[in-house]
Queue: 4 jobs
Job 1
Amino acid sequence: MPLPPAVDAPREVYATPTLKEISWYADGPEGTRPLVLLHSINAAPSVFEMKPLFEHYRAERRVYAPDLPGFGFSDRSDRPYSPALYAEAINAFLADVVKEPADVVAFSLSSEFAARACLAAPQRFTSLALLSPTGFSDRRLPSGSVGNALHRVFTLPGLGSGLYSLLTKRGGIRFFLRQSYVGEPPDELIDYAYATSHQPGAMHAPYRFLSGQLFTRNAVESLYAKLTLPVLVIYDKDANVTFDLLPGVLESHANWHATKVEPTLGIPQWERPTRTIAALDEFWRTVEARAGADAG
């Protein structure tokens, strides 16, 4: 199935000695503080998930949006996808493509990857905004052995491909999007999710996701609580995650902030784009004001 561009913007591809081809889009005026948008991880994610933010901000800022490994136009080969791989890809993108500190906006599970990347190279981040982030639930994740066993099941000949085919039928995509959307999800979201999930190798990274191997155990303690840069969480309700541990992080870490954009069910940038953009703008104004005060 042909895969159209996720956004109407120039697209390029790059690779590093340890990373295979990564596709990325960029647009907006040069010389402005860069903004990097990171899509989520699920059975059918893409840069299309970040389209409302890309289209809004490219009028005023240089905006970058990569296809993370295993998705979009990036390499989708069968390899060990892991949180470390995604953090490495994010940092390589910031270092080799963006080349200066950036405001980063991450969606859902990519929030954990962005936090991991920031801990490894904080100098590449100006701020971090997390849309409906994972990692704040008090529910325990499956053990590594359970995840490995699930992955073996998913990759059994016939069984895994049949499951993935079922999940990525138009009806299946619409069903899951309805759980994460106030009202009826737009057809364009469903159409692009269907197209991107029907590319060669499209199931390899989702198998790792579905088996739980891309989540970080105790993400609050091991990732989020260690961040020292300004962080914003935009959230409300979510069919797939909870935010049980978020109040404790906000109370004990002055660099963390949260805005409840409601009513939303997990995709605020599509469900309530105006309110999401307003929350981001207010956060960045605060970041700039504090940076100016510190410099003075």
Note: Residues 273-295 form the longest helix (23 residues).
Job 2
Amino acid sequence: MEMPDFTRAIAAAISVAASLDLPANDAIVLHNSNKLALRLMPCDVLARVAPVGQEVAQLEVELAQRLAEVGSPVGVLEPRVDPLVYTRDGFAVTLWIYYEPVTPDVSPVDYAEALERLHVGMRKVEVASPRFTDRIAEAEEIVANPDLSPELADADRVFLSSRLGSLRRAIDDRGAEEQLLHGEPHPGNVLSTKKGALFIDFETCCRGPVEFDLAHVPEAVCEHYPGVDQGLLDECRQLVLAMVAAWRWDRGDQFPNGRRFGEEFVRSLREGPPWPTLDMMARRLDGLEKSPKVS
């Protein structure tokens, strides 16, 4: 989120908290891209903020409540206020418990166990949600429309369009069992807490094979998740790479260094297998950013 929206979003979150008798006069930015995550102080509440109409916060609130009720490992809403989506100055604000991290990362064994428990819980709840193919369609629209992705080179546009379409057909043709999924259970959406590994950010939930979720997590996590179809997982990893590449070329994308990510994701797809995981791509990009420049 860029200025002045960034400043207005913080002000909106503080205003909402204060109106609910949660003392808040400061905000620590935890994450900033298309939406904003803030730790409000001194009430110590996590606020998630996005422009109204660019979020599905009501679905996230409903799903988080239902998953908590069936004992799923999820971050829960702030109990001192009503579990609602609050709007202020054009922003949708949701308020959650802030969990102090106990370790920098969740171990692969704990990550896999928590994700399996999450999937079990998701099979117990009924909510209206899109299919994973709807998310593919959103990526395809960005790639197909130069007005939405004006900086995407023509050759890469043709390549990504073809890859997204072929992977969607290949995964559909497998006829794998589908269920409600997190949608993006990557390391940025799992917390290491005193209560164990907890998943957050359910705005991307969708229906699909569990391998679609597994395509977002580190390889070591997949090794501890039971019953994985490796062929389907490979196809889903390619699909995730192609989808993320498309989103990074979206004209409205505000992900830090987004264009650089878009270039590297397309390059990785062109290079072929073995398909890198998202955490591998993040480390690769971090290494490129830190490498010395040669004139």
Note: Residues 291-295 have pLDDT under 50 and may be disordered.
Job 3
Amino acid sequence: MPPAPQETGTIDGFHEPRREDCPWCGSKRLRTRLRAPDLRQRGRRGRSGPGTSVVDECGDCAHAFQNPRLTAEGLAFYHRDLPEARHPVAPRRHRAAARAMLRFPEPESWLDVGTGEGAFPAAARRYFPYTAFDGVDTTRRVQKARASGHIEEAYRGRLTDERIVNGLHARYDVVSMFHHLEHTPDPREELRAALRVLRPGGHLLIEVPDPHGAFGTLLGRWWPWYAQPRHLHLMPPANLVTELESHHCTIITTTRREPQALLRRARLANTYRIIARRSGAVS
């Protein structure tokens, strides 16, 4: 159980003070895109969450972010007892992502960031039987992934932790991040860490929600309902592409994935996938 939240300048203690500028570009041209109650925890075993979530959007770079942002204690509340996703679409999504890497030589080593219980490595082994898959995750589920044989090495913590990123420097041919960046306090720092553990010429595979996809338009004022409560950032593809290129990466593909059977499979929403190659030193 996480520690009791401490006061951080907001009423509920689960949120940091509200910020007046964009965390991506620094602009102060913000507008509120979404204000909604906790849709995830409501009615879940009688638990109630920290309350209303607010998502602001930058008028200059279109970056959307939770404002005020959940504290570490608030994030721990939502991670507590969070089960591994078992939605029937997830295995197909994982297999599709793995197939997207078949155009490249089979990697010797692959790190899955935010791996949970290793659902993606388990699916990817079908296509890469000779690849050594490792995983990093902030929860104890990463140990379950290793015990089940889905990964070979398990690292508990954030990839940005110095003990982890320094120990894994330039070790991997592929680093994957599936619906991970949007949950992190600083997506840019996560990207830099991912590039540090990649070998020169290695590939970064990213999948994140698309804040401007058709599904968000359909939902109107509930756009996008998947923005909360654990999603701290929602990044337009152009922003991630520009960031990766600034770190000497070559963008191989940027693919938007539209939802299927919208109402029945709402959890998919819209996502986009980026494959980038590390072409030089990390800046």
Note: The longest helix spans residues 89-99.
Job 4
Amino acid sequence: MKVAITGATGFVGSRLVQRLQGEGHTIVVLTRNTTFAQKVFPSQAFPNIEIVAYTPNASGSWQSVIASCDGVVNLAGEPIGEGRWTPERKQEILNSRKLGTQKIVEAIANANSKPSVLINASAIGYYGTSETATFDETSLSGNDFLAQVCQAWEAEARKVKDAGVRLVILRFGIVLGNGGALGKMIPPFKLFAGGPIGSGRQWFSWIHVDDLVNLILQALTKPEIEGVYNATAPNPVRMADLSQTMGQVMNRPSWLPVPAFAIEALLGDGAIVVLEGQQVIPKRTVQTGFEYKYPNLQSALTQILN
């Protein structure tokens, strides 16, 4: 296959590129920073890659490369958990997803030879937060900022169906691997200062990065996969359980809680991502017959941390 990917240099995207390269596929990396992309994917190690400069929120000549592709994976978006959510930052978070997806769909619609599938990232923030509710793919959306972002993001992606292209929307949980959210949680544990964030009661719906990459590959290659799927492991945990399991796997204490006010001081509104949560079940994902390599937190953390 020939696959175009946005967000390819990121935590999930780079793992996806490695897998596609390893399986002999051709990859078109759409990037704002070609110099950085060339460092991440040196041509000696990644001979099957074409690196193309693009402006995510503007039409341009970059859109023509979509025409020769079999599939498109749209992972681009400003990071949510970094820095305070000022009004400007919130606008960047929304625009990077809404306008970025709009321009990808525009490119697909204008292509003479269209890709057969668009795989578009979304997030479990779609459902809003709750300590008591359980959400699956049929659940209604929430009404907080992240839920509104996800609604706008998915609405733009759905327009690709007007071009007769199969659409798969994957609502990502918190992705665990070497980097990402877990990378920020490991250092305190190494210093014997690890513990739950906030109350510890909030739900933590997660997925191992390798399972997420496998899920994306399944969506690329199986024409019967269509619509919305939760990209989460089937066993979400509460934050206190995450902390306890990390402590066990790393052989470190896990009793020192990080108070909510400290996270709020650091992240502002963005603290909602870690201080509140949602229990998300991948009902449709499991129904496809998808086999998780890491269905339980213990196995996932053991693989990552050891």
Note: The chain has eleven helices and 13 strands.
